[in-house]
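Protein modeling request. Please complete all fields; requests missing the sequence field cannot be processed.
Requester role: graduate student
Desired output: 3D structure, token encoding
Chains: 1
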Amino acid sequence: MNELPTAEPAISEPAASEPATSGPSIDDLPVADFFSFESLLSSKERAKLAELREFLATEIAPYASDWWNKAEFPAHILPRLAALELSTPAQRGYSNLFAGLVIAEMTRVDTSIATFFLVHHDLFVESLYSFGSAGQKERLLADASSLRITGAFALTEPGHGSDVAGGMETRARRISSATGEPDDDGDSWVLNGAKRWIGNGTFCDYMLVWARDEAVAADGHGAVRGFIVDASLPGVSRSRIENKIALRTVQNADIVFKDVQVAEADRFAGISSFEDTNQLLRGSRIMVAWQAVGQQLAAFDVARQYALERQQFGRPLAKFQLIQQQLVTMLGNAVASMAMMARIAQLQDDGVADMPQVALAKSYTSARMRETVALGRSILGGNGIVTDYRMAKIFADAEAIYTYEGSFEINTLIVGRAVTGVSAIV
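Delivered output (426 residues):
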């Protein structure tokens, strides 16, 4: 992948006591895509990726740290982001490798913008493609794909993250809107419950809400239903989660549903159990693993530039053996992670990527990411803990990637179950 130009320097200008090195130009050095995975793309895809890079360099990079520091979401960029026509790339005929590299490139510049994109397009819009009725697609798909409306994916609950499949407490009751009484053939549903950590949740127009059908199963668990919920409906309340140390630009919300009435026409007819969500969760987990790749590319970019420019003991940091060892470890982690994800993309193209493979990719890449960003932060020393230098933001955002779309531990146990035939989760 080409080195990304940015209007926001990775480090401050050298002080007078630290003369700039006359060493090699960073433009003449190998790129972070050391094994040239980008060359596997078609010429059309490479051109589109270059267009995305230009957008990120001019519209995102100069401002991302300020948005992050202020915990503000830049809604004004959405029309320009939509103009790139990158919503659900695989649905537009692009390869899965290209789709992954889109997320990696966005993350390389700003993890929060990449997360917004992932939640809206890879979860909400992809849900419309996968489970929406003809009427739902006609009503929402074009506007959602072009970001004229925004969506969220409301699955996680205050008391249930990794165990939400079995522990979901949000309930749906089918009723007749005329009488308000339970009716197995009713034209409406009533939702009650709460969701937490919902990305885009404070400002989205619609959200895909998962709830358990009260009436279905005698064992008390019930079938899981999906609903397209207009966020402005009576009974929907949402509040921003404050005091985050990662993904500060992302507007995560606590959402409460109190007797929210949703039309039967807004239920996803293609969803009848939690198993139906696996397709979506598998795809989003892949994209979060690509975020782990992007974080490593960003960390390497910033750390290498800093090492070349920062003077200590009369020479640039890059001339110290331990610094070179750290940079090579970072690069190796990034390349290994990209290789794993490139293979996952091939499996996706063949329609055979399964959840254990995806779980291994997410756990492995996120673990390598954590090591990589820690090394990068170390190279920057004290400057690595302030957002004036990009590494502090990269380091902090990595913690969210390590946890969401299945924590490292849960993804590890999914793989462990696959290779032993024995579940250690429950």
